[in-house]
Specification:
Strand 3 and strand 4 form a beta hairpin. The chain has three helices and seven strands; from the N terminus they run E-E-H-E-E-E-E-H-E-H. It has one domain: Peptidoglycan recognition protein-like (Lysozyme-like, 3-Layer(aba) Sandwich), CATH 3.40.80.10. The strands form two sheets. A five-stranded mixed β-sheet has the order 4-3-5-1-7. The protein has about 170 residues and is of the alpha/beta class. Bound molecules: zinc ion. Zinc ion binds near residues 10, 115 and 137.
Length: about 170
């Protein structure tokens, strides 16, 4: 089983007024030399989810990070003029959060970031600033937006562990 500790969020970099079907996405990735779409999850504009790969299989979505990460992509990321924008629909936001919460419970050591946060820190100040982004994907600040989810999950698990170890201690006396 591979060791998963990162969830990377992507956008399909397609216009919000256009449909980008899973079939088309699959075909585009196929043409780039992947077995199938490189993401594990693809969230359509209506909130429907397509599972391209089981999470235990390695994805092909973030160079240098595929081995230890899960790739989640939402349909969109460009406005009607083709400019990068946070085009997530309410359905996509809801589904994205649901998937992230489920994945965090399954893989508690996971951090969440956007594709652009994996760019090189050229001036080595510890922050990946906009001028360092290799691309703008996923067109919103995923790292900051989902930080509370990561923190809440860690707190929940710490509490659970504490309760568990307390139970074990109590059992020792019987
Ligand atoms: Zn991306």
């Amino acid at each position: 089983m591979r060791n998963i500790n990162l969830i990377v969020i992507h956008c399909s970099a397609t216009r919000e007024d256009k449909e980008y079907t899973p079939e088309q996405l699959n075909r585009d990735h196929w043409e780039r030399g992947f077995d199938c779409a490189g993401y594990h999850y693809y969230i359509r504009k209506n909130g429907k989810v397509v599972h391209f790969r089981p999470v235990q299989s390695m994805g092909a979505h973030a160079k240098g990070y595929n081995e230890r990460s899960i790739g989640v992509c939402y349909e969109g990321g460009l406005d009607v003029k083709g400019k990068p924008a946070d085009t997530r629909t309410p359905e996509q936001r809801m589904m994205l959060e649901k998937i992230l919460k489920e994945l965090l419970l399954r893989f508690p050591n996971c951090d969440i970031c956007g594709h652009r946060d994996l760019s090189k820190d050229k001036n080595r100040d510890g922050v990946i600033s906009p001028d360092e982004w290799m691309k703008v994907c996923p067109c919103f600040d995923a790292k900051n937006e989902y930080r509370p989810l990561v923190v809440a999950n860690q707190m929940y698990l710490a509490k659970l562990n504490k309760q568990r170890s307390k139970k074990w201690r109590e059992r020792d006396f019987i």
